[in-house]
């Protein structure tokens, strides 16, 4: 790790009071060393990673990290804060802060070194030595796993000196975990069966090859490092042939009584970046497993790829632990075993509880779905197993909407272009199969219109099919599509599609719970489930609920067609509020889906086109307003926000509401209400002006397809001005903190706005 951190990348007196300021201070050292090319761009990548999940860990540790195109070489900077910096850990601020920067295309070797550092952080000797290090060179050497420089003195602690036994133990642990001597680590892991049993239970098969342990070389090296950690503090003489990497005997692990088979657990850890939390959770679980006397082998699914656990190891396991924030790859391998499924932070913070929980499940005979059934639906794989029904219902519906939207965009734009080229009577044109003239614009307009109409024909079936997919995985697709197609047949429309999708998913889930004889399991997914579920869903849609839903759909359509005057303006304001409430989230998508459903026909009503216009106009307001605010009052925003403001011009003009999310995440109490006020005004004005829109997307690029385009742009401009004025006013009313008043103006221009407590991302 010598090329990754030097004394110049260490700050033992870090004075930052926020996580953003801490990241900036450490990143500036990377810039000075030529490790980072664009400070603000790199910090934006760090902030984006932080928004996915806080990087604070129990024990006073913060590990902001990311992979970024602005990083020239894998780099680590370290800061020690006396006051502590809040990185979102449950036990309070962090005093040890590691900023990890990996290039976007970092190779596996460097990522392995970074992951080894992450494992190091679970070693209290290592962190104690860093807290007592007296100078930057000593701290850098400890992190690298080098010999502590002569003359390095601990800040009041013997263990930090060059001759201190405690520091030597920490350095030895660092060398093992960092992989500075992979051969020695492997030797420590396999030199003796006794040492292997104590340090790497997964290697009990008798082979010293990593594959025999059921894990990657990283796992074997980490287990050896753990053995070295134990040995560093042991005074017992070493049994012959059972020494660790430093010649000491590994401490015996607590285990079952002689002759009793130990409980065996396999685990998978993963996090969004795959650099730090993935490996810290693995180390924490392995340590807790040794203390509990169980054999625990971890598969780390990190950025450097992963080596699958040996199928024999999985087959012999008594339980499974998933500690992950991204879907577990090849999860079906673990089906049929007692399983605990949690987020990666739980694997770091409470590993002993997870081990106890999986042992209790095994004792009760609880197991996950057998191998012949899906091991969790797409929604369950991407979510938390403890989510309530309401949360799952929202995700099921959003699953269908997310797959439907591309059909809406493609079909809607094609239909709109068809009208633009061929005129508003193009829907009366004959089929282009019977009449198409290459040199006539009307023929091309008819072609685009008819292709768009075919694309629109898939909307309701796709919506229903993928709602069922979100509930029951692939077996739900067939009855979902069938139910959606029936909804179109009986004129139940969008509402019918929602009902059909939920019905299909529920029916398939019910069938999957039936205990099927082994002889029939092979044909269940391809014959039995599609046949029975399609028949049930078809019966319910045709005979039971189809007609009431069709009546409700017709009533809703008639009500929208009759909206005029004040009612239309109020509806526009409501839709504007919804579009700006969560900037691309579920509420935004409900409003957008409501609008697109209205124009998802060959000849949409005038009211439906007005609603679509109001929704798109309101959705453009937040990013455009943030872009304007950063232009007219840049001093109220951080340098990163000003950079984001430049991109927000394009995003807003393209009707991508998510362009305002960075601003809302940093200051939600000021940005979101301001955006909602401007969006409501724009929606109301658009409806009042009678602007219409046939295209479901496109922003200013589809202005030629808008009815009353000039007034439509006026409505957008009005909303943007209102939101900008409110944001500037509210941000300007903030009282500066005492620190900001004493800060040099040059520093203020490069720092985040003072006096604002940045929220911790969930």
Explain this structure to me?
The protein is α/β, with parallel strands linked by helices and 762 residues long. The protein is 55% helix and 8% strand. It is built from 30 helices and twelve strands. The strands form three sheets. Strands 1, 2, 3, 4, 5 and 6 form a six-stranded mixed beta sheet that branches. Strands 8-7-9-10 form a four-stranded parallel beta sheet. Helix 10 (277-292) links the parallel strand 7 and strand 8. Helix 3 (108-120) packs antiparallel against helix 6 (165-178) and helix 6 (165-178) packs antiparallel against helix 9 (217-232). The longest helix is centred in the middle third of the chain and has 34 residues, at 389-422. It is globular. The chain starts with 9 loop residues before the first strand and ends in a 12-residue tail after the last helix. Residues 151-254, 371-375 and 737-762 have low confidence and may be disordered.
Number of DSSP E strands? 12
The helix tally amounts to 30
Bulk shape: globular
Whole-Å distance between the termini?
A: 32 Å
Roughly how much helix do the residues carry, as a percent range? 55-70%
Mean pLDDT, all residues:
75
Sheet having the most strands: 6 strands, mixed
Topology:
Blueprint: E1 10-11, H1 19-32, H2 39-52, E2 56-57, E3 61-62, E4 65-68, E5 75-85, E6 94-103, H3 108-120, H4 124-132, H5 136-144, H6 165-178, H7 182-190, H8 193-199, H9 217-232, E7 264-270, H10 277-292, E8 295-300, H11 311-316, E9 319-324, E10 339-342, H12 344-349, H13 351-364, H14 378-382, H15 389-422, H16 441-456, H17 459-472, H18 477-489, H19 493-512, H20 524-544, H21 546-561, H22 565-581, H23 586-599, H24 606-632, H25 639-653, H26 661-666, H27 668-689, E11 692-693, E12 706-707, H28 709-732, H29 738-742, H30 745-750
Parallel strand pairs: 1-5, 3-6, 4-6, 7-8, 7-9, 9-10
Antiparallel strand pairs: 2-3, 5-6, 11-12
């Amino acid at each position: 790790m010598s090329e990754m951190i030097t004394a110049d990348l260490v700050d033992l007196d870090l004075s930052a009071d926020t996580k953003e300021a801490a990241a900036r201070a450490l990143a500036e050292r990377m810039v000075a060393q030529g490790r980072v090319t664009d400070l603000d761009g790199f910090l934006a990548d760090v902030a984006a990673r932080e928004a996915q999940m806080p990087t604070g860990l129990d024990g006073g540790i913060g590990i902001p990290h990311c992979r970024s195109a602005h990083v020239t070489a894998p780099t680590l900077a370290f800061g020690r804060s006396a006051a502590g910096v809040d990185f979102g850990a449950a036990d309070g601020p962090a005093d040890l802060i590691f900023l990890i920067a990996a290039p976007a295309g970092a190779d596996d070797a460097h990522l392995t070194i970074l992951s080894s550092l992450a494992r190091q952080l679970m070693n209290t000797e290592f962190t104690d030595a860093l807290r007592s290090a007296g100078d930057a060179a000593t701290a850098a050497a400890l992190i690298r796993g080098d010999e502590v420089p002569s003359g390095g003195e601990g800040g009041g602690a013997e263990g930090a000196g060059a001759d201190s036994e405690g520091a030597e133990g920490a350095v030895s642990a660092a060398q093992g975990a960092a992989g500075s001597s992979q051969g020695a680590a492997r030797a420590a892991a396999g030199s003796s069966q006794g040492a292997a049993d104590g340090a790497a239970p997964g290697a009990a098969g008798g082979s010293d090859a990593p594959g025999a342990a059921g894990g990657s070389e990283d796992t074997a090296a980490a287990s050896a490092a753990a053995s070295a950690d134990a040995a560093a503090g042991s005074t017992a003489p070493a049994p012959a042939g059972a020494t660790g990497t430093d010649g000491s005997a590994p401490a015996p692990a607590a285990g079952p009584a002689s002759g009793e088979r130990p409980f065996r657990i396999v685990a998978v850890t993963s996090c969004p970046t795959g650099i730090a939390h993935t490996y810290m959770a693995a180390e924490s679980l392995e340590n807790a497993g040794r203390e509990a006397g169980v054999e625990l082998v971890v598969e780390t699914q990190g950025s450097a790829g992963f080596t699958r656990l040996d199928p024999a190891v999985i087959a012999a396991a008594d339980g499974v632990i998933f500690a992950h924030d991204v879907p577990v790859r090849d999860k079906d391998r673990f089906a049929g075993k007692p399983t605990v499924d949690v987020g990666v932070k739980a694997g770091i913070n409470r590993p002993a509880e997870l081990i106890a929980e999986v042992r209790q499940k095994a004792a009760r005979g609880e197991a996950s779905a057998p191998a012949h059934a899906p091991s969790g639906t797409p929604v369950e794989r991407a979510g938390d197993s403890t989510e309530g029904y309401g949360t799952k219902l929202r995700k099921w519906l959003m699953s269908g909407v997310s797959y439907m939207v591309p059909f809406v965009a493609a079909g809607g734009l094609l239909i709109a272009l068809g009208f633009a080229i061929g005129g508003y009577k193009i829907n009366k044109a004959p089929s282009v199969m019977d009449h198409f003239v290459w040199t006539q614009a009307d023929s091309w307009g008819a072609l685009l219109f008819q292709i768009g109409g075919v694309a629109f024909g898939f909307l309701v079936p796709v919506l229903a099919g993928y709602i069922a997919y979100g509930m029951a995985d692939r077996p739900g697709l067939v009855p979902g599509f069938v139910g959606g197609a029936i909804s179109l047949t009986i004129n139940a429309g969008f509402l019918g599609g929602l009902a059909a999708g939920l019905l299909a998913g529920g029916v398939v889930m019910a069938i999957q719970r039936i205990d099927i004889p082994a002889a029939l399991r092979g044909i269940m997914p391809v014959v039995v489930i599609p046949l029975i579920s399609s028949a049930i869903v078809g019966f319910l849609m045709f005979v039971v609920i189809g007609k009431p839903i069709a009546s409700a759909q017709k009533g809703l359509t008639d009500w929208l067609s009759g909206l005029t005057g004040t009612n239309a303006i109020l509806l526009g304001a409501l839709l504007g509020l919804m579009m700006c409430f969560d900037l691309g989230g579920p509420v935004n998508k409900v409003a957008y889906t409501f609008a697109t459903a209205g124009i998802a026909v060959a000849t949409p009503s005038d009211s439906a086109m007005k609603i679509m216009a109001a929704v798109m106009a309101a959705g453009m307001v937040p990013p455009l307003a943030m872009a304007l605010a950063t232009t007219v009052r840049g001093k109220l925003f951080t340098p990163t926000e000003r950079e984001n403001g430049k991109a927000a011009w394009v995003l807003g003009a393209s009707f991508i509401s998510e362009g305002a999310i960075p601003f809302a995440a940093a200051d939600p109490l000021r940005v979101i209400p301001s955006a909602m006020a401007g969006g409501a005004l724009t929606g109301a004005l658009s409806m009042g002006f009678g602007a219409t829109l046939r295209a479901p997307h496109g922003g200013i690029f589809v202005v030629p397809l808008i009815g009353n385009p000039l007034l439509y742009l006026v409505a957008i401009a009005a909303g943007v001005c209102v939101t900008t004025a409110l944001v500037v006013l509210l941000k300007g009313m903030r009282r500066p903190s005492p620190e900001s008043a004493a800060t040099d103006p040059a520093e203020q221009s490069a720092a985040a706005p003072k006096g604002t407590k940045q929220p911790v991302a969930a």
